[in-house]
Each structure stands twice: as structure tokens, then as C-alpha cells.
Amino acid sequence: MLESNKDSAKLDAMKRIVGMIAKGKNASELFPAVVKNVASKNIEIKKLVYVYLVRYAEEQQDLALLSISTFQRALKDPNQLIRASALRVLSSIRVPIIVPIMMLAIKEASADLSPYVRKNAAHAIQKLYSLDPEQKEMLIEVIEKLLKDKSTLVAGSVVMAFEEVCPDRIDLIHKNYRKLCNLLVDVEEWGQVVIIHMLTRYARTQFVSPWKEDDGLEDNEKNFYESDDEQKEKTDKRKKTYAMDPDHRLLIRNTKPLLQSRNAAVVMAVAQLYWHIAPKSETGIISKSLVRLLRSNREVQYIVLQNIATMSIQRKGMFEPYLKSFYVRSTDPTMIKTLKLEILTNLANEANISTLLREFQTYVKSQDKQFAAATIQTIGRCATNISEVTDTCLNGLVCLLSNRDEIVVAESVVVIKKLLQMQPAQHGEIIKHMAKLLDSITVPVARASILWLIGENCERVPKIAPDVLRKMAKSFTSEDDLVKLQILNLGAKLYLTNSKQTKLLTQYILNLGKYDQNYDIRDRTRFIRQLIVPNEKSGALSKYAKKIFLAQKPAPLLESPFKDRDHFQLGTLSHTLNTKATGYLELSNWPEVAPDPSVRNVEVIELAKEWTPVGKAKKENSAKKFYSESEEDEDSSDSSSDSESGSGSESGERGESGEEGDSSEDSSSGQESESGSESGVEDERTAKRNSKPKGKSDSEDGEKENEKSKTSDSSNAESSSIEESSSDSESESDSESETESRRVTKEKGKKTKQDRNPLTKDVSLLDLDDFNPVSTPVALPTPALSPSLIADLEGLNLSTSSSVISVTAPVFVPMKTHVLLHRMSGKGLAANYYFPRQPCIFGDKMVSVQITLNNTTDQKIENIHIGGKKLPIGMQMHVFNPIDSLEPEGSITVSMGIDFCDSTQTASFQLCTKDDCFNVNIQPPVGELLLPVAMSEKDFKKEQGMLTGMNETSTVIITAPQNFTSSVILQKVVNVANVGAVPSGQDNIHRFAAKTVHSGSLMLVTVELKEGSTAQLIINTEKTVIGSVLLRELKPVLSQG
């Protein structure tokens, strides 16, 4: 079938072969036949061939090398999946001779437009490093470049490569630390695990210990009755001694939501991060998440319980509320049961010990003998740890000595022996009882323990001890080696304390031991004979024989086997095995003094600080149109604090992806890939340098623009300054182009200032038709990948925004309103909202929302404002100014901006009056998350060609032919979605284009009329989720008459 000329037969054959591999069958014999098809033009066959080659390239290196030119050609393939697969195969051929080729391929792939290919480049780095460690320095350069990547798809893979190749190069992380913290929520699960472990190690080297703060709190509690002044002084001192670094807090805050992850490894990683770097007062939140994992399969339970066992030794309080979660179930495997016992023992205290002992009584009766024995050991540990129950436990263990099960009895004997060592004088009766058991117990350890106890206490049981020795002498030859050693010891002790009765008996035992097969016993016999039986040869030691044999023995410490595991990082293989595993990276101790935190600052922050005052000065003159002065100050202070900490209000994405909103350079799919965007940046810089001397023409242009849209310049300058003040740019090229554009804006501002002043009185929040800052064609960048959860799906993209694509005015604005608050629910206050389809004045990533408030009562409603907000992670909202009062039957319309992060998630918040708060929410239709763009048919086809495969969704529409006229289709499409019409040279094809508000990803809609009454609706976009939702909404609208 592989030799067939038909692609269908080859495809069927490849599917069968890949199926064989999936089942674990060996398909290596087919390698020559499969490798011939690597040059197939059919993409589906090619993908499957690459899957096969990745599996067998290492085994069949010679044959794979023959096709290396094909792989190199495939690295230039327009399909990103083929490029990535070719790189995977190339890195799987582990032959030193092709290392330079691999190195070149990795470098090229790291600058690829597709995040999926860059992700595979990061994977290839590790393979190349294991093949040739000498390439380390060159690979570090690639890692440094990929660490700057803003794609969530790449982040986890590049950090994995960093951990493998150069885990000690902490300096590479400094500049990317805040970005990694902010992207963490949106990275795929296994990437999250790697990043969290790396950031845990990073935090331990860069921040001071937060545990000093807790020590201070404890001291404060002890001196509770001190005067207020003294207490205040102490509090001030403590504040001076420790203040948590904002970056330290950023990491703790951004990992907290991941405790709710469905992936157990992610939860475990966050738990170990909190354990190792969070203040002790905050680690309590991880206990609930870890207990939740105990519902998982047994392997997950085993790892989680091991880590809880280590934690519960140091901080019992964390898990005490969940004590019942650690009760043993009959269905648990033995390994889980013993770990739960360990944790219950660690959590035992005076308050709960009675409950636990009742629980242990049941466990002792278990059919699982190993578990029953472990329970008896647990009772012994509880008895030593809690002195109040020592006697109770001892009596319980003595009762177990009459148990029918030999293993239970033997374990009880061993534990009683340890307990009696702590209080030897009080328990003569128990020793007598145990001596009687020698006849029935056969377990060597138990027999040895009884003999040891009788030997140690031979003076307290003078009648029984000689008789026990007599019985043991009879059976000496048939006993276990362990028991024989204790018989010899018992004989020696009795010889020294009661030689009248036992002298001959001891000599008889020593003679038996002299000829024993085991050399340990022969050695012990010779040693004891020389020590206790004085003769001419015996030295001075024989005088001290009694002191040597009957010395006071220290009581054994019954400790947890997890006591010393805490020096390994929790959740690691080394912790599980309790030994250092290969590749384990130790956590360093906290530094005494924190290293310089400014190394994590990104260059643009400094530039932002320099120009902010200019922006403020400008605002004082012209900003009264939209903001009150007090709000202006709040905004600027908020934004500057955000830029310093490197994070936004909740997920901090403004700091990472917001900076590109105002720059006018081209970049490829939101990534600052060096090869793709450098030339664009250079062209732009030269263009700006050339335009600088022509101040006059600039100002003339500014005046023309001012005539076209009256307040666009002032509004634009104002909105851009607000947006930019909260940005935290990552790249130097961005920052340079921004500063250049600001200078141009300032020049325009000076020239048009006189024109602007008289206009300020006429502008209101509702004049959004005039506010069209992008009405002239502007070179728009493709923004960075959205840190929303949907961003994972945009990974497999190849698109770049073309320089001729520009945002246009909306074709149609539907006036359909949605109820925000019904007058009955709002006690007379009614609220409706609609989407005006205009660029938002509060931020270029926000969707503009108009809210109309009506007072349907006969009384004045006072202080209408937005209260508490419950927004999904990443979503942001700019609220309207509080309304002092709304007259009876009065109405007012206000504007809000909401950054929905390119998702249809609901924005929930409270609409409050002076007396009440009402829970309301806004859910955007998918069509309102778009901005219409103008583009030529040629550009449309080019972009559509790069958004195929996983980025394309389509469906067939059936309706009457009269519904397929151009005007009807246009009306129906723009009514549902805010898209722009693209001119088409064919009557049967209608094209529409838009971009998403948040990330700027293109949304291309095609309606292609077929014969009869059918048409095909095609949507191409990186945002596959939004694309499929839009498809579902357009289909019924286009189908109906």
C-alpha cells in the first residue's frame, strides 16, 4: 500500500502503521518504505510519516540520514505542523555529524512566526545538549532569546530547556521574571509545573526569608498584655526589619489560583512553592487543595500523602481540621494505609488521641497483617509522644499479646520492649507475662526482644530468668541467628548476677556457640567467654564485665521516617525516594540581604517615568473633557505603581502585553522575533528620523486631521498617555519607537493647542461618533498573545498583520439594548446597556459599553456607582464616575470600558446606590469583541492562506436564493458582528474582515454562494474558540428568510 500511486491507499497504510506503534508493536522493518513518502505532497500523509520518523529515527540513523535534505527543505514548508515535525525528526537523529545542521535549524525555528514551531525549537535544545554538551554557549543564546517570547505556548518548553541546559544562569530570568509570573495562569499544565519549580528556586536566591515576619508575630502574641505604646513600638520595629518584596508577593499571588487546577502535579507544585517561599501564616491555604487530591488515583495519593507526612511533622495545625480525611479505608492499598497512619501519628495530640486510639483498635484487626503491624508501631509512637496515654497504650498492647495472629503478637512484643525501656522499674508483671509467651511465639524478632527484656531485668525476675535460659539452651541449635545472639547475652548477664544457678548452663551455651556455623555467633561466644570467665589470659576488662553488660541503656527514640526528608524540595523524586536523584537541583538557603531588585526592572519603566510629567502637564490643559482632576491623579498614581511592580490589578497582563497597543511598528503574531521584526523597526526609525526636520508638514497634517475629526488629536494624546503610563514594555525597539512617536505627538499638540481649547466645552462622553482616532490608515501591530485561557488555542498560528490593514468605522451599529438591572429588582433604578461599536476611550484593549440609567421612582436616587467587582482572571473594567443624584423619572447615559480578554465570559459587578447594592453582569455577544478592518482582496486571500488547518472552521448554509443578494448578506453579517466589508472581484463570494479588540488577532469571514440554494460560510482566525462561536451565531441568521 505504501508503494501505491494513490494517496488514499498510502494514507490508510500510514494510519495502520501509526496505530501499530500506538499499541506498542514494532514497525521498524517498514522504515525504508515509509521514509520514501517523506517527500509526499499530501499534508496528511506527510504528518503521519513524520510521526513515524520521530519514533524510529534514532534506531535507523543511517536510513534517516539519507533523507536529511528532505527534512531541511521541510523546515521551510509553509505549514507550521510540517516545519515543527521536521525539526523533531532532525533532533531525533542522534548522530554527532549533523550537530551543526541541528544548531542552525534550532536557531531558525526560534525566530519562526509560529509559537508551535518555537515550542518545538525549545524541545530540540534539550536533545541537542544531551548529544553534544559543547554547544552549551550557543544554546544559551537561543534560550535567552526564547525566554523573551510572550507566547504562553513557548514559555513552559523554554523554561524546561533552561532547567536542563543552564539552571545556574539565574541572570537570564531577571528580566523575564514578572512576565513568567503573569503568563503562568495561561501556560499549559506541564509547563506550569516546570515554571513553578524554577521560580521557587529563583525566589530562594533573590528574596529574604518571609519567615522572620512570623517569628515577630509569635513574640507579639506572647507579650499580649503589654501597653499599647510598647506594642506599637514593637510593631514598627518589625515593619522595619521585614517588608516583602513586591516581586515576591507577585509570585505568591499569581500562583494561588492554580491551587484549583485539575492537574494534580500543578497543585503539588504550587503547594511546594508556598511551603518553601511563602510566609508561614499563608501556607494554610494549600492544605485544602492537597486534601482534595486524595480523591485521585492511588499513585497521586501516594505522592501527596508523602508530602503531607513531611509537612505535618513541622506544622501540625495545617492539617488538623482535615483529620478524618486521613482515616484509612478498607479499599486503600497497603502503601497508602501506612502513609495515612504516619500522618495520623504526626497529627496526634492530647485533644484527639482518644479518637485516634479507637480508630487504631479497628486497624489492628485488619486482615492486612503488614498494616496491622504498622498500626501497633503507631500506637507505640503515640505512647512515647503523649505521656498521658502511655499506660493506656501499654495495657492495650499487652492485651494484644493474647491475639491469635502471630505477627500482631510479635510486633506488640517489639513495641512493648521499647516502651518498657523508658519505665523499666514499674512493669515486672508484664515481663513475666511475656516470658510465658516464649513457648508459643516463633517470630525471631519477638523472641529476641523477650530475651533481651528478661536479660536487662534479670535482677527483677530472679526466679524466671534462669528457667528461660534453661529452655533456650535446649533449643539453641534450632534457633534463628538473631535469637542465638540474645541467648548468649542472656547467659552472660545471668552468669554475672546469678552464677550459682546459671554457671554450668552458660558454659554449655558458650560451648554450643563456639562451634556454630555462623561466624558472628562464634565471634560473640569467644568475646563473652574472655570477658566473663576469668583466667590467666583475660585482661583488665573482665573486672568491668558487669558494668559493660548491665549498663543503663538509653531509651530508643521512636521517630517518624519522614523526619529528615524536609531538606529535599517537596514534590521532587528525591523527596519521594529520600535520596538525591540524578538531576536534582537543591534549594539554596535564603540570602541574609536581598540582591538588588532593580535587575528585574525592564528598561522601558525608566522612560515611562521620564515622560509622565509631560503627559500630566498636557492633561491639565485638555483632559477636563473626560475626567475630573481627582480621578486623573488616581489613574496616574495607579498606573505608575502598576508599572513599578510589573503587574496589573489581577493577572498583571497589562504589564506584559499592553505595551504594544500604542506603538506603530509591525511585529509577527505578537512576538518580537528578531529576524521577523528588526527590519520593520529599522524602516520605521529611519522614516521618523526623516520626518523630524519637517515640523511644518507635521503640523499641517495635524491641522488637517483636526478638521476631519475635531477632537481626535486631543483625545488620542490623552488616551495614549493613560494607556502608556500603565504599560511595562519588554523590548528596547518598542520603547524607542514609542518615545519617537511621543515627540511627534507633542509637536502636534503644541500646534493644535489653540484650536483645541474652544472645542472642549462641546465634547461630551456621548460624542463617540466624532471620536475616531484611527480613521486614517495606521500601521497596526499584531499585539502579544493574550494571557487569557483561550490563548492556548491560538498557538498554532502563522499570521502576521499586514501594514495596509487598518481599523475603519463600523458599517452598522445595532441599537439593540440589553437589560442590566430591571426596575423591580433595582427598587426603582433601571439600567440598560448596548455596544456602540466605537474604539474605547479608556483603553485600546477595552470594549466600549454605554449604560443608560433610569429613575422610575418618585424620589431622588443618590450616589449611583460601581461597587465590588467579580471578574474572571485577566479581565479588567474601567468604571464610570459616581453619579451624585438622579432626579425622579430622570435618565442619564454613562460610558464604561471592559477588557473581555477576547472571551464571552461574564463581567459581574455591583451597581450601587446610597442605600443598596445590586448584583449585575454584562455578557458580550461574540460579534462585539471585534473591530472592523479595511483590507484589499489580495491581502485578505494572503492572510486567509496562512490561517488554514486548525485555524479554519466552516459550515454549509441552506436558504432561499432571494436571501443571497449582496445587500441582504451584508445586512445580516454586520448585524451580528462588528466586521468590515472587503471588496470582492467575484459576485458569488462575500468577504468580511475584523480584528479582536484585546489581542488584535484577525477574524476573516467568507460567504461563498454555491449552485442552487446553498452557500458555504468559512471563518479563519487564530482565535479558534471565538471563531466557532461566531460561526454558530451567523449560521441561523444567514439561513433564515
TrEMBL record:
Residues 929-1039 form the Beta-adaptin appendage C-terminal subdomain domain. Pfam families: Adaptin_N, AP3B1_C, AP3B1_C_2, SEEEED. Residues 725-738 have a biased composition (Acidic residues). It is found in: Cytoplasmic vesicle, Clathrin-coated vesicle membrane; Golgi apparatus. It comes from the Eukaryota. GO terms for biological process: protein transport. One of its GO terms (cellular component) is Golgi apparatus. Keywords: Cytoplasmic vesicle, Golgi apparatus, Membrane, Phosphoprotein, Protein transport, Transport. Belongs to the adaptor complexes large subunit family. This is AP-3 complex subunit beta. It comes from Daubentonia madagascariensis. The lineage of its organism: Eukaryota, Metazoa, Chordata, Craniata, Vertebrata.
